[in-house]
Design goal:
Number of helices: 8
Strand order of the largest sheet: 13-12-9-8-14-15-18
Shape: globular
Low-confidence stretches: 1-6
Helix content: 10-25%
Distance between the termini: 46 Å
Number of domains: 2
Number of strands: 18
Radius of gyration: 19 Å
Largest sheet: 7 strands, mixed
CATH class of the largest domain: Alpha Beta
Mean pLDDT: 90
CATH architecture of the largest domain: 3-Layer(aba) Sandwich
Structural class: alpha/beta
CATH superfamily of the largest domain: Nucleotide-binding domain of ferredoxin-NADP reductase (FNR) module
C-alpha cells in the first residue's frame, strides 16, 4: 500500500479487494482494504477509483460503509458505462488505486433529532453510512427513519419490518435487513410493484409520513437526501412544504475530484450572493435551499 496526504485528509492508497458481490440490476457491492480512507471517511464523502488500466478516468463512488478499526470501506454502484463494467470484473485479491475520502459530509444537529434519511437508487449508500453513524451513537437521542426508493430490485433482500413507525401508511412494511438489525426503521418505495413497498416516489412517501407529524414534531425533523437531481429537487420541495431543514448530497460528473479542474461546479446561493461551488470539495453535501430554489 502506498499513500500520500492531499489537503491533509485525502489519501492515495493501493486498496486490496476483499470481496465483491453482484446483485440484480447490474449492481455491485465492493469492499476494499483502505485503512487511511476508512479512518477519515464521513457519511456523505466519496472515493475516486481507478477502474482499469485501459480507462484513464477515475470514477467517483459514494462510501456506503467504513470500518476504521478493521480498515475497510464499502461502495455500492450500478454498472453504467465501460469504466464501471471493468470495475465489476474485479475479484478478491485484486488491487484498486483509490483516492479518498473526498468531500464534506452531512452534519447532524442535536436540536433536530428526528432524522429523516431519503435515498434514491445509487443515492442509497450515504444514507446507510449516516444510519450506521447514528447506530454507533446510542448516547444521543436520535430518532432516525430511512426511506429508500428504486425502480430496479434493491441490492438486498427486503423483509417485513418488525419496527413500528407511527404515521406510516398501512401495508408499507418492506425494510432493509441491515438497518433492522441495527434497530433503525426503514421503508421502501418503488413503482415496480415490489411486495411491501410504497407505490410511488420515495419523496412522496416522505411527504406522507411528514403529514402525520404535529408542528412541534416537525420542528425536530431534518431531512438528508441523496439521489438523482430530479429526486433532490423533489426532496427540497417537500422540505419547503413542511418547513423543515434539508441537506442534499449532489451527484455530478467530475474529472479530478479534488477541486483542480472545476468541472463539477454548481450554482449555490450564499450569504454573499450566487456563487459557483465545486461538488467534489465544497460539497457534495449542501443545504437544499441554497441549491434548489422555490421556482426550480
Amino acid at each position: 500500500m502506498t499513500h500520500q496526504a492531499h489537503r491533509d485528509t485525502i489519501f492515495v492508497e493501493d486498496a486490496l479487494v476483499l470481496e465483491q458481490s453482484a446483485h440484480p440490476g447490474e449492481q455491485f457491492i465492493l469492499r476494499l482494504k483502505a485503512p487511511r480512507c476508512a479512518a477519515s471517511a464521513t457519511a456523505g464523502s466519496f472515493v475516486h477509483l481507478t477502474c482499469d488500466p485501459s480507462v484513464p478516468m477515475r470514477r467517483p463512488l459514494s462510501i456506503m460503509r467504513a470500518n476504521a478499526r478493521e480498515g475497510w470501506i464499502e461502495v455500492l454502484y450500478k454498472v453504467v458505462g465501460a469504466g464501471l463494467r471493468h470495475l465489476a470484473t474485479r475479484r478478491a485479491g485484486d488491487v484498486i488505486n483509490t483516492l479518498g475520502p473526498i468531500g464534506k459530509g452531512f452534519k447532524l444537529n442535536p436540536e433536530r433529532p428526528r432524522v429523516l434519511l431519503v435515498g434514491g437508487g445509487v443515492g442509497i449508500p450515504p444514507m446507510v453510512f449516516l444510519a450506521e453513524v447514528l447506530h454507533q451513537r446510542p448516547e444521543a437521542k436520535w430518532q432516525p427513519l430511512v426511506l429508500m426508493g428504486s425502480e430496479i430490485p434493491f441490492p438486498f433482500r427486503a423483509r417485513p419490518s418488525i419496527i413500528l413507525v407511527p404515521g406510516m401508511i398501512a401495508g408499507v412494511i418492506a425494510a432493509m435487513p441491515l438497518l433492522e438489525d441495527w434497530g433503525i426503521p426503514s421503508r421502501l418505495a418503488s413503482f415496480a410493484g415490489f411486495a411491501g413497498c410504497y407505490h410511488g416516489y420515495v419523496t412522496s412517501l416522505a411527504a406522507e409520513w411528514l403529514k402525520s407529524l404535529p408542528a412541534a414534531e416537525l420542528a425536530r425533523v431534518e431531512m438528508f437526501a441523496c439521489g438523482p437531481t430530479v429526486m433532490l429537487q423533489a426532496a427540497a420541495a417537500v422540505a419547503r412544504e413542511f418547513k423543515i431543514a434539508c441537506q442534499v448530497s449532489l451527484e455530478e460528473f467530475m474529472a479530478c475530484a479534488v477541486g483542480g479542474c472545476a468541472g463539477c461546479t454548481v450554482l449555490v446561493q450564499t450569504e454573499s450572493g450566487p456563487a459557483m461551488k465545486r461538488v467534489c470539495v465544497d460539497g457534495p453535501v449542501f443545504d437544499a435551499a441554497t441549491v434548489f430554489q422555490a421556482s426550480a
